[in-house]
Known about the structure:
The protein is mainly alpha-helical and 411 residues long.
Amino acid sequence: MSAQHESEWGRVAEDGTVFVRTADGERPVGQYPEGTPEEALAFYINRFEALEFEVNLLAQRVAGGALSPEEATESVKSVKAQVVDAHAVGDLGGLLARLDALAPVIAQQREARKAERAQRQAESRERKEGIVAEAEKLAESNDWRNGANRLRDLLEEWKALPRLDRSSDDALWRRFSTARTSYTRRRKAHFAEQAERREGARVIKEKLAAQAEALADSTEWGPTAGRFRDLMREWKAAGPAPRDVDDALWKRFRGAQDTFFAARDAANAALDAEFEANAVVKEQILAEAEALLPVTDLDAAKRAFRDLSERWDAAGKVPRARIKELEGRMRKVEQAIRGVEDEQWRRTDPEKSARADDMIGKLESAIAGIQADLDAARSAGDAGRVKKLEDDLASRQAFLDMARKAAADFS
């Protein structure tokens, strides 16, 4: 056979049979009777090159992590079966060696994926436990506005997390689901109760608005103003009504209130204008009253003030804004006159004067007795008794001086 009919890894026999050389020896891979030996050998070498391309592609995909360890193992097994019984001419043993060399790579990837999966599981467990804890806290809260939205976000986050082992995942899910159900039930109960309260407030406020409208044209300013204050307290105590009617009811209530108080203010303004002339008269009376101060003749001041008071009352009402000012000035004059009168009475009180005179008589009598005892002690030469009586006499004399001064204030 010529060299053209064979290669490093195979040959073509005279009958057209093509053989491949392997570590176990030659084996026939097929015949190519219709062509030349060169064409036959090239045909089976091309088959090998196709297998080699497939092995190279698989090796690249395994090295790049494009396949899971399980997928890679199955792919290697499948390609290896093709190589073992391949009808091709080439280094089939080299291809098998390359495929076998992928086993430790796949094993390493399997361990890495296992560690990665374990890490994801641990992170998923930690996050799911956090989600459950937050949900259970929300279930006990009254955050009705944000709580429902937050629970929806937590649910979406839960769905995106990897599952745990069935037992752990189911246990955490039951806690999460129970918390959501509890919150939803309490939230519905809250809004149902709130709706009931708002409906009750609507009934009350409709009655209050009707009562206010009935009072809007009243001219009994004082009693009606008081009634409006009562209605306002009841309105605030009623709480909010449903939003779609609360503003409308308030406009009715406030409109009636504004109508009444605008009419009252207009009436008061008219009265104030009418009473302005009275204020001018009272200012003139005040000028005369204030001229009585300071008081020099109490009786004359009292008589003059009585006359001024009668004129004051007869002058009539003044504008409300001036009542405090004018009344205060008149009261100040009255208090000044009364103060002088009280001081004079204090100094001329008959009972106090009589008590002072009685005290003076008793002290004078006692002093006379002590003086007689002192003279006798001196005559007897009793120095100790003399000293005691002299001290007693000095003390009584001091009391007598004070009593005489007090009596002089009442004279």
